[in-house]
Amino acid sequence: MKPTSSAREIGIQWFERVWNQRDSAAAEELMAPDAVGHLEGGHTIVGPKAFLKFQRGFLDAVPDMHLTVIDTVADKTNVCVYWQASGSHTGRGLGFQPTHAALGFQGVTWFKVQAGRIVDGRDFWNMAALMQKMSLATADDLC
């Protein structure tokens, strides 16, 4: 990451490098060590290590998940990223059997960026609909 990356560039890198390329070093590069993530369902995680644990559980359940950035709105310290995710529930992650269902969902993530790193992130998406497609899962299984 170049030191002059804008909030918008950091938000886009988050989805491309961290989610699509599965680059855990990028998560540590883009997130401040004490960054707070406010996840759908009322859960909070702190720091890259906790995020990577969450991501690992999600990708264990949906190993082919891919996120596409649809649009962004940004200023100097904030970026809202409107994204779409797709994949198949073929893995045994999150503590339940795979349904082999095709999954598609969309949401918004709002990042606050300071000194070139994410310090706060808030996700907004329909977790209940995803859980229904994944059948036996509950919101607590994601964290």
Written overview of the protein:
With 143 residues, the protein is of the alpha+beta class. The protein has a single domain (7-137), classed as Nuclear Transport Factor 2, Chain: A. The chain has helices at 7-20, 24-30, 47-61, 127-133, and strands at 31-38, 44-46, 66-74, 78-88, 102-114, 117-125. Strand 3 (66-74) and strand 4 form a beta hairpin. Helix 1 (7-20) runs antiparallel to helix 2. Residues 136-143 have low confidence and may be disordered.
How is the secondary structure organized here?
Blueprint lengths: L6 H14 L3 H7 E8 L5 E3 H15 L4 E9 L3 E11 L13 E13 L2 E9 L1 H7 L10
Parallel strand pairs: 1-6
Antiparallel strand pairs: 1-2, 3-4, 4-5, 5-6
Helix pairs in contact: 1-2
Overall pLDDT confidence = 89
Which class do the helix and strand fractions yield? alpha+beta
Give the tally of structural domains: 1
Radius of gyration: 15 Å
Helical run tally:
4
Number of strands: 6
Order of helices and strands: HHEEHEEEEH
At the fold tier of CATH, the topology name is Nuclear Transport Factor 2, Chain: A
Overall geometry comes to: globular
Uncertain stretches:
136-143
CATH architecture group name:
Roll
* Beginning-to-end CA distance, first to last residue: 28 Å
What would CATH call the class? Alpha Beta
Trace the largest sheet across and list its strands. 2-1-6-5-4-3
The share of residues in helices is 25-40%
Q: How much beta, percentage-wise?
A: 35-45%
Task: Report the biggest beta sheet as strand number plus sense, adding barrel if it closes.
Answer: 6 strands, mixed
